[in-house]
Hints:
The structure is a single chain. This protein is mainly alpha-helical and 319 residues long. Helix content is 53%, strand content 3%. Strands 1-3-2 form a 3-stranded antiparallel β-sheet. Strand 2 (307-309) and strand 3 (313-315) form a beta hairpin. It starts with 7 loop residues before the first helix and ends with a strand. The model is unreliable at 1-20 (pLDDT under 50).
Amino acid sequence: MTSTPAIPSAMSSAAENTSAAVPAAGAVDGTGLHGPVTDWFAEHARDLPWRRPEAGAWGVMVSEFMLQQTPVSRVLPVYEQWLARWPRPADLAAEPPGEAVRAWGRLGYPRRALRLHAAASAIQERHGGDVPREHAQLLALPGVGEYTAAAVASFAYGQRHAVLDTNVRRVFARAVTGRQYPPNATTAAERKLARALLPEDEGLAARWAAATMELGALVCTARSPECHRCPIAAQCAWRLAGSPVHEGPPRRTQAYAGTDRQVRGKLLAVLREAVTPVPQGVLDAVWDEPVQRARALDGLVSDGLVEPLGGGRYRLPHA
């Protein structure tokens, strides 16, 4: 692999002042990063089922819904079972939404299952069962936001879009702005930077999107970055600045034990296993604290994940 020049203005300024703002888009040139990162990806990319040609756009979309806030290791078995059962959007749309919740298992954040079912139904109704190619049409699907629309357009159809997930944002924060971590929420400045770094060539842009995501997942990790393995370590503003520690607000971690989210998960687990409506008394045995249990159950009903029936019985949604 040949050596490539650094990004002069963006990286030198970040190395001098690691608390500097995101560089202006016009001051950034990503050409020195594209080759090393995509070459590294060609050699080190994981063989994941949604990256194979046979996955198609539907396989890519399913993976993007499942991978939100969920590690690959947990997604893989559920993804494979899902695609075996529902290989096309029409197959999922033909089933009640409760079956999507049931098949979602313990991936967490089960509203994603309802959103994916709603997207499949819309694909069937609006696009004849084929996942649309156009970014605007993808974005118009229920449950599809800017990230998912860009990811499907890029990974499934090879289009030129900035795909900003947590891993990509961390790579850009370190390599270009000299910060250890990106902001908690994606900013307009980050989006401008991502667009400025995007290769002009459409095919290269799609590879760049996948490669930067993989680099953040495997090398430029949040807790233990392996800079010695990084193809752009020599150009990284954060590393050149001595890898300064994070100086912003403490990074929040989500608690789980004892939270309403845990109670919701326990209630849903009972309902997923049931083939007939579940009486209130069975759900009452799931969690000792009645106020929290009732609040969690009400939240599941409000979110459309649970359907209340007469006689104090509950089931997964059927319509």
